[in-house]
Amino acid sequence: MRLPACLFTLLAAAGLARSADAGRPNLLWFIVDDMSANLSCYGERLIQTPHLDRLAREGTRFSRAFTTAPVCSPCRSAFITGMYQTSIGAHHHRSGRGELKIQLPDGVEPIPARLRRAGYHTAIGSGLPDAGRGGQAKAGRKAAAALGKTDYNFEWDPAMYDGPDWANRRPGQPFFMQVQLAGGKLRGGTDEAAKRLAERAAAELGGATDPERVILPPYYPRDPVLLRDWAAYLDAVRFTDQHVGRVLARLEAEGELERTLVIFTTDHGISHARGKQFLYDEGTHVPFIVRGPGVPRGAVRDDLVELIDLVPVSLAAAGVPLPAGLQGRNVLAAGYQPRPFAFAARDRCDETVERLRSVRTERYLYIRNFLPQRPHLQPNAYKDGKSILQTLRSLHAAGRLDPLASELLFRSVRPAEELYELTTDRWQVRNLAAAPAHRGELERLRVRLDQWMRETGDLGPEAEAMYNSDMRVYAGDRGGKEGGRDTLIANIAQMKRWAAEGR
Q1: Model confidence at 424: pLDDT above 80
Q2: Domain coordinates in residue numbering, the chain
Q3: In terms of DSSP bridges, do strands 175-181 and 342-346 run parallel, antiparallel, or are they unpaired?
Q4: Does the domain made of 25-500 have the CATH classification 3.50.50.60?
Q5: What is the DSSP string of 462-476?
Q6: How far apart are the C-alpha atoms of 254 and 200, rounded to whole Å?
Q7: Range in 83-92, 128-137, 222-231, 307-316 with the lowest mean pLDDT
Q8: Which residue, 478, 501, 502, is CA-closest to 490?
Q9: What's the rounded Cα separation, in Å, for the pair 433 and 444?
């Protein structure tokens, strides 16, 4: 029997599509909230992360990977587009949420939209049909259908995601899956929440991390609240590792693991007084592990990587042409030349106005403070609602912090420039910007940062109208959350007073 020509064409096209699909890998990103590289494969000794160690053993681990923004929405806006957040106007945290919106520049597009047009099933969720992003059971049909965390600062089309999971793709269709995990947010923001996570770890992981064994950065006091918080954070890392193991087991059971490019990373470092929201390694250094077809096994790379490299690595693996002007780089490309510099920026976070920029080499970190007349720990309702910040402020007020902690955390003004030599100063506590022996490096990095800002079109401070637009949303949404509405409104007024004073 002869088939109608139109049906023959459709069948042939379907066959070609299946043939093309068979040659393209799945793409799976693990994106974790608020977590530094505290994995045993990165040298953490107090806990073990066997599933992430396996990823590193069977793939390539990057030792010097950095976020381009140390807070959720700017960095997520950056890595989903492959562009610096400062270039696309998405650099102020939770911006464009009011009546004034942010549109992406022409030619800039989130990677899910590009991959969906290329035939991929695009999904964002927990990677486990029966669990949420915290690893616990989902409650109800609505929760099961909910997309994972996006938090983009620009306007985007929800249709770029086909759903929360890859299970509903057509047979043989490759998928792009973002597994969004709570990570460091599992420990909550209060001492009571940290204690509850310890109880959960004891029940589900066979034991909780002992706070007395925790090793803190040298500028944090060994106060019981801070020790319990850091121990809970390490247990959050253990829960994250467990979740990753369950997703990998699912891929194996479905016969998909060996045809899936898996990338594990986090959006930024631990939420703490010198971590999240700041450009020191505690806030910007992230794990970055890649496993999959063609990826060297058991390799460790020490060259500089930025989170915006997620897009070109993934598009190249999918056989999708890289768009013109993309700022991320395919660090897995044949003949790739490592970048000599990595850049990062911090701008407004919630109601708190700030402007920081940094450039690093393998040896040095240079930070520029554009608002040096403001304190390091400006008022911020979100962070000041956390027990660790309340404890630090209380200890400082009582004169019970050592000189290093007082200087780094509670100085009323900051130097306009900071320079750290990373091989001898792991925690960036010795500012060498005024040291004559390092003047040449200071000047070189100062010039290079200026050049990067010009070349990438850094859009700089937020317009007052946009700030006001978003603060109306913040003030309306805050309610009884961290710090409360009254604190938020007082902080907004403080920001405006400082700006009027030229600070």
Answers
A1: yes
A2: 25-500
A3: unpaired
A4: no
A5: PPHHHHHHHHHHHHH
A6: 30
A7: 128-137
A8: 478
A9: 12
